[in-house]
Each structure stands twice: as structure tokens, then as C-alpha cells.
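One such given next:

>
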Amino acid sequence: MLDTLSLVLAACVSPASVGDQDGAAVLLARCAGWFPRLRHIWADQGYRGRDCLDWIRQGTGITIQIVQRADGGFRSTWARADAPPRVVPRFAVVPWRWVVERSFAWLGRYRRLSKDYEYLAASQENAIYLATVLLLLHRIGRSLS
């Protein structure tokens, strides 16, 4: 979970077999009450399921907005032969998605996070928090000099 400045608020590392919706439920349940001012979440299309959205709204009182690409998430679709072709841009910035991608790029600069070296999920989460602390220290150092 990130804030709008791309700072990590909470992290939940899980195996690849765990879906995005299940991981979000674990993360939000884990950090319930940590952020009383949190009212709105932007999420990508992996969180579109009704169960996940309803649980987040009812269980936490947080509204969630699914951010979609300009083509609605479908680069190519089947259409009737007489239907007009859809104009889909080759590249388009997805609103608020760049914040997350920028954070992944910043975290990927740290050796411990560039590859999946860790055996335990807790070690990987702690490495994420440590990298976030280092990012904040670099920002503070730049502002003081």
C-alpha cells in the first residue's frame, strides 16, 4: 500500500499462487486501524471482483476506484466484421498507476529487492521497509544540503 507520494505505508509479501484480491484482504486486515484518515484506494484491474470490492467497502468503510487503461483493459477484442474499428492508443499513461510503477523502480534499485533472494516473506517485507527508510533518508539529505 502506497500513499500519493509513492511512500510505502504497508507491505504484504505472498507466494505467486495467492491472487491479488486475497492479498489485498490480508493486507487491509493486517493494517486495520493503522491509517484512520485513509478513505479512498486506487487499484488496478486485478481487484475488480465483486467479493473483494464489497468486502473492502463494508469491512473497512474505504471506497475503492478501479483504474483502467484508455482501451478499457482490452488491447484487442473480437468484433463483428461490419463494426467500426476501435481506436486504441499504442501507449497511454494510466492514471495513478505510474505512482506504483515509480515506487517499484525505486525499490528495485536496492540489491536485496532486485531479485527474489529471501526465503521468508517476513524478511522480504522488512527489506521493503528498510529500502523505504533509506529513500526517506536520501530525500531528507537532499533537502538539507
About this structure: The chain has a mean pLDDT of 80.
